[in-house]
């Protein structure tokens, strides 16, 4: 992916519209996340559910990845198709440590999704 002069493959999405960065964030591959970000991958790409790499990391409790994404400029208040922010996604998946980490990174604790749930 990273050896050519054309970085377009960094943004090439699969059938679920996930970029390599999103797939790495989803699956907990921290070193790959670092490599892709350092190579210029778009930090706030979106998949078919409007999830960003940060939302995918939050959903799966990958705190180190979430921190790296936020420190690389990810929008900590980005919303998925249903209006859920990464902190709402983390909470709904039972990842209390992720919620705490996102709060420490500046996430709003009073955000609500499209159904008014916080």
TrEMBL record:
Q: Which InterPro entries match?
A: Ankyrin_rpt, Ankyrin_rpt-contain_sf
Q: Is-annotated flag, keyword Repeat?
A: yes
| UniProt keyword terms in alphabetical order | ANK repeat, Repeat
Which positions does the entry assign to ANK repeats?
16-48, 49-81, 82-114
> Could you tell me which species this protein originates from?
Mollisia scopiformis
User: Which Gene3D superfamilies has this protein been placed in?
Assistant: Ankyrin repeat-containing domain
Protein name according to UniProt: Ankyrin repeat protein
| Domain of life the protein comes from | Eukaryota
């Amino acid at each position: 992916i990273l050896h050519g002069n054309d970085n377009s493959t960094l943004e090439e999405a699969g059938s679920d519209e996930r970029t390599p960065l999103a797939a790495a964030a989803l699956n907990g591959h921290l070193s790959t996340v670092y490599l892709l970000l350092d190579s210029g991958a778009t930090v706030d790409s979106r998949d078919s559910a409007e999830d960003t790499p940060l939302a995918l990391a939050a959903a799966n409790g990958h705190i180190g990845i979430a921190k790296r994404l936020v420190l690389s400029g990810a929008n900590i208040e980005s919303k998925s198709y249903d209006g859920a922010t990464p902190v709402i996604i983390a909470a709904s998946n039972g990842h209390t440590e992720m919620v705490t980490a996102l709060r420490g990174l500046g996430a709003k604790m009073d955000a609500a999704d499209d159904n008014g749930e916080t």
